[in-house]
Design a protein that fits this description.
The complex is a heterodimer of chains A (313) and B (536). Chain A has two domains: 57 residues, no CATH class; 210 residues, MetI-like fold (Orthogonal Bundle), CATH 1.10.3720.10. Helix content of chain A is 79%, strand content 0%. Chain A contains twelve helices and no strands. In chain A, helix 5 runs antiparallel to helix 6 and helix 5 runs antiparallel to helix 10. In chain B, helix 10 packs antiparallel against helix 12. Chain B is globular. The N terminus of chain B is likely disordered. Classes of the chains: A mainly alpha (313), B alpha+beta (536). At the A-B interface, helix 2, helix 5, helix 7, helix 10 and helix 11 of A face helix 6, helix 7 and helix 14 of B.
Amino acid sequence: MSRSIYIARRLVLMIPTALGITLVTFVMIHLIPGDPAATLLGMRATPQKVALLHREWGLNKPLPEQYWLFLTRVLRGNFGDSLFYNSPATKIIINQSTVTLLLIVYAAILSVVIAVPLAIVAATQKDGPADQAVRAIPLVGLGMPSAWVGIMLILLLGLKARVFPVGGYGTGFVGHLHSLFLPSLTLALGIAPVLVRSLRASLIDALEAEYVATARSKGIPERRVMLRHAVRNAIISSVSILGLQIAWLISGTVVVETVFGLPGVGALMVNSIYRRDFPVVQGITFMLALAVIVTNLGTDIARSLLDPRVRLE
Amino acid sequence: MNTDRSLEQGAGLSRRFPRRQFLGAAALTGLGAGSAGSLLAACASGSPAAKPSAAMRRGGDLIFARTADPMTLDPAPASDNEAIWTILNLYDCLYTVTPNGHGSMPWLAVSHEISSDQLTWTVHLRPGVKFSDGKPLTAADVKFTLERVQKSVNAYILAAVGGIDAPDASTVVIHTKHPWGPLLGDLSLYCNAILPKDLNGMTAAQFFNHPVGTGPFMLDSWTKGQALKVSRNPHYWRKGRPILDSVTFTTVPDDNTRVLQLRGSQADIIEFPPFADIASLQRTPGIKVNLFPSTWVAYIGMNEKKPQFADVHVRRAISYAIDRNSIIKSVLFGHAQPAASFFSPGWAFYNPNTPKLWYNPAKAKQELSMSSYPKGFSATYAIVAGDTVNSAIAQIVQANLKKIGIKIGIQSYDVSAFTDLQRKAKYDLAPNYYTLDIGDPDENTPWAIDAVYGGSWSLDTWYNNPEVLKLTYASERTIDPKKRAAIYAKIQEIVAMDCPFAELYYQPYPYAQQTSVHNFSIPPTGNYHLEDVWLT
């Protein structure tokens, strides 16, 4: 099957998956106790005022009808208006998603930048002291909760050294990169250990493979052997792992966003669930579901590009 | 009138309202101290032009990190403190609370007269006041605003007002259905902040995206969830104010992050630092901690729809069983005062001689033995998940009540579920708090003790004492503050003995700031006059 047909088929399959997820979210958030009108009105929540708000928000309609309205709006790229902010949910979500998206991409890049050199050092000095260190130390990082790592980074690089801001999003692209460095590093330190170990293992296999021996015997410089032959082959399995990790990051940024005071979509999601801000919760769930599906698809495509033996079907 | 359940605070992994308390007696008695206070007092006496200080530097952007976004910039339906305190920097009311929190002083108004039958109030507007778009303030704007509030969810505050006339551009005549003592206080409530007539021809949605008011600042930009920036209103009526060019309110729900941002100089002022950090912040050079006396009252609500709590002896037993001093010492780090009255010392008409049903195990047992449950019973205690203060308090209360035979199980809910539980009267015991926004208790008494009219069924306790209601209505219909004080003193005594709430403590509003911020001071109602603040 050609790659484009495969991709098209996967994209079509995304739709029922995403819809299924929105249905589950919709049912769950309406099942748990709590009423956005009572929450918004607080002490002033007389039954009349609650009923008035329900009518205004369309919450007095039967649930299937509300879900149907949600679906027809989604088709037009509209999640409805946030019940708590006087503005469209789509606008709020997109606004805050950019922060989260940048954070995830930044963290993924940093984790690769950290993992690849370490894995090469470890693989080339297999069982030596450097290898032992590379295998042991990141494990410590893996065991640390990201909230704690984040606070330590803030204390060291933010408050002591004053190299990076202790929180916030900064202004301008350079400002964003500067402000997001510590949160991205926090996330990267959480996923790099897994990457290092998988990359090291596959590099060791690759370095013992016959094609590497052939390349060396042809007199190709060691550096080129490593990067063009060994790493290229070894990295394929790590791409899948990185893909899985990114999917995990999408749901795992909430803590880091909280610690660094970042206006990301994770924090928005948590707040909106607390308030029962239905349109925002449903909108975010839908977008996150799409993001995870697209990441998985992207991972498969990247693998097939790196390894012609991987067949997409 | 922020209450626990008005949700603005629910957010964040750590609960936004730190209910972290610091109050010291010194802070409490220092009402009205501070230079902002004196400036306000100057305004009250009719000279709005503030004297510029020699050291005062004009300009600059103040970065103010707060726990939550405002929920709205529309004064009429607002209820969360972030919205209220932002609104009062964009718009002004006819009257405002005095620096000590115990009264109201002219603001957009300069004076008023009451007719001999006490039913007609003639209010004269301050001359020369302009909106931020340059248009002059007129009585028509006031009439429009107040009539708009009468159609809003906060309509109760003007329920006594029968009609509003604007006989000329600078005179407003307010007719009340009966004599109404709290009127000036009611007019100083944030929801009565004056808007231009007909919202300048815009819809509410359009107008509040680009609001126009007479306040010291105007909205510059608002990225929801991130930051709300306000800049100087060039037409502001107090000469030389604001001193700052702009204020950026950032939204930082996490307590630790706000403290770190202050330490890292990324914020100039932070709202509600956790009380656990107060001591270390006070020791940090370049940082100053303010514990402003507040109107905050923390209590445990007891649901009288449940037979156990319908028994007054049970309620009194619980109040006597709770060791407030240990709560204040171990959870609030000593920064609060034990509470007896449902009025706080920051409220007008607070009665310091209210009976104190405080820690007394013998009395607690005696009251319980007089109840229908002499051997005790089991009950639930609902808290909001992630609320560290109330979670710690719950454990102390649990231990206290166990000693008299009442076993409580602590249950955590998210904010919306917690609200639902209270609204539907499905809870047994639940801690909560309320604050007051004006220099008159009339904003809160309908909610706190009036199960008939208030709409909140006495803060969801369903407490209903006809004698208290009769006295409340009598006080509201009395103009003379001395007579009102006597009635409210009596009400506080009766409510304390009826004990619908186990009052816990009064706490201040903690703020931490860089020492480069000058003149930041707030009245007990919590609204800040940022027009008086400057940076060096």
